[in-house]
Automatic annotation (TrEMBL):
One Pfam family from the record: GDP_Man_Dehyd
Family annotation (InterPro entries): NAD(P)-bd_dom (IPR016040), NAD(P)-bd_dom_sf (IPR036291), UDP_G4E (IPR005886)
Pathway the protein takes part in: Carbohydrate metabolism; galactose metabolism
Natural source organism: Microctonus hyperodae
Single GO biological process annotation from the record: galactose catabolic process via UDP-galactose, Leloir pathway
Spans through the membrane: none
Family of the protein in this entry: Belongs to the NAD(P)-dependent epimerase/dehydratase family.
NCBIfam families referenced in this protein's UniProt entry, alphabetically: galE, PRK10675.1
UniProt name for this protein: UDP-glucose 4-epimerase
Keywords tagged on the record: Carbohydrate metabolism, Galactose metabolism, Isomerase, NAD
A Gene Ontology molecular function term of the record: UDP-N-acetylglucosamine 4-epimerase activity
Organism lineage: Eukaryota, Metazoa, Ecdysozoa, Arthropoda, Hexapoda
Residues annotated as domain NAD(P)-binding: 11-338
Length: 368
């Protein structure tokens, strides 16, 4: 893959996280230099404050990443980092994202996600960097009025605080791009990212308890959990279970490189794109696909619906295909196999024992 534009340096917030670490692989392979920050609120740090995920990214790509520990609510530190580098574009991933937790501690979510975004935008403006790719989410559509969902579907009827923070930031981006013509922003509305890099070296390893479906399925397949609880078997769907658009994390990562190319080609002010496959897959279908692709057994129990859950959500991703030249290519089978490779090579995520000293240190640290 070659870099198509003139930009060189990309600043990535939340760089040690699941989605960002996979995107950084794609960015480095496309020829960009990457400066990443993270506060380790939901990712693993090594003994001297390095990101274990980003060390693995360096191993995969043979390239280095400049990394700083920084919380976006610390504006001074953020400004200091911006003053040290000439940054061409920002990809803003950093956010806390547990739906249930967001309902319990809303102020924490508003403070972290909203103030973090405001600080980043202000620091960008002061540094005269107006190019941004924002991590948004299909959750901002709320309960779909029609399917597959297009970008002009109404947004804002959201059932949880996490989703509202994403919605409010999109509204903020609308206002600033309307008021100030320098801004050039793409908001990427992710559907359900799953899977891992095919090397098995990086993957999803939240430090908070698992809540998403695929990591839970893998934990059951490994025998760490006795069974999967399926939230609702009585929805009016093909088999009674909820439907989502699962997208391979490497396809999602490629979508970010495509967005950077588009921003370099034209001044868009603000544009939103769905990143999904367009395929609706039920919980039961995902369980069956996982069992088949990995030759494992995933016992499950169907229980009551999860509060605030949407029944069915999948993307119309035609706009991204037309305007970004991007579409999802990897199959459900590859999503399962790649996630399983990561999970079995690293049964305890980045804290798994290897001959690597960093990880030995980590194990010591987490056992303390
Ligand atoms: N789900 C489930 N059991 C779980 C976790 C999730 O049945 O332990 C279902 C959930 O109700 C939804 C789908 O799996 O229909 C995807 O849920 P996830 O939390 O991964 O993503 P989101 O709800 O944010 O789309």
């Amino acid at each position: 893959m070659t870099m198509t534009g003139i930009w060189k340096t990309v600043f990535v917030s939340g760089g040690a996280g699941y989605i960002a670490s996979h995107c950084i692989v794609e960015l480095l392979e496309a020829g960009y230099d990457v400066i990443a920050i993270d506060n380790f609120s939901n990712s693993v740090s090594g003994i001297t404050g390095e990101s274990v995920a980003l060390q693995r990214v360096e191993k995969i790509t043979g390239k280095s990443v400049k990394f700083y520990i920084c919380d976006l609510t610390d504006r001074e530190k953020l400004a200091e980092i911006f003053s040290k580098h000439k940054i061409d574009c920002v990809i803003h991933f950093a956010a806390i994202k547990a739906v249930g937790e967001s309902m319990e501690v809303p102020l924490h979510y508003y403070r972290n996600n909203i103030i973090g975004a405001i600080n980043l935008l202000e620091v960008m403006k002061a540094a005269k960097c107006f190019q941004l790719v924002f991590s948004s989410s299909c959750t901002i559509y709320g309960e779909p009025e029609y399917l597959p969902i297009t970008e002009n579907h109404p947004i804002g009827k959201i059932t949880n605080v996490y989703g509202r923070t994403k919605y409010f930031i999109e509204e903020m981006l609308k206002d600033i791009t309307r008021a100030e013509k320098n801004w050039n922003i793409i908001s990427l509305r992710y559907f359900n990212p799953v899977g891992a890099h095919p090397s098995g070296l990086i993957g999803e390893d939240p430090t908070k308890p698992y809540t998403n479906l695929m990591p839970f399925i893998a934990q059951v397949a490994l025998g760490y959990k006795p069974e999967l609880l399926i939230f609702g078997g009585d929805y009016p769907t093909k088999d009674g279970t909820g439907i989502r658009d699962y997208i391979h994390i490497m396809d999602l990562a490629a979508g970010h490189v495509a967005a950077l190319t588009a921003l370099q080609k034209s001044h868009l002010r603000l544009k939103a794109y769905n990143l999904g496959t367009g395929m609706g897959v039920s919980v039961l279908e995902l369980v069956k696909a996982f069992e088949k692709a990995t030759d494992t057994k995933v016992p499950y129990i169907i229980c009551g619906r999860r509060e605030g859950d949407i029944m069915s959500m999948y993307a119309n991703a035609d706009l991204a295909k037309k305007e970004l030249g991007w579409s999802a290519k990897l199959s459900l089978e590859e999503m399962c196999q790649d996630f399983w490779r990561w999970q079995t090579m690293n049964p305890k995520g980045y804290r798994t024992a290897t001959n690597d000293n960093t990880n030995q240190e980590l194990i010591k640290k987490s056992d303390d």
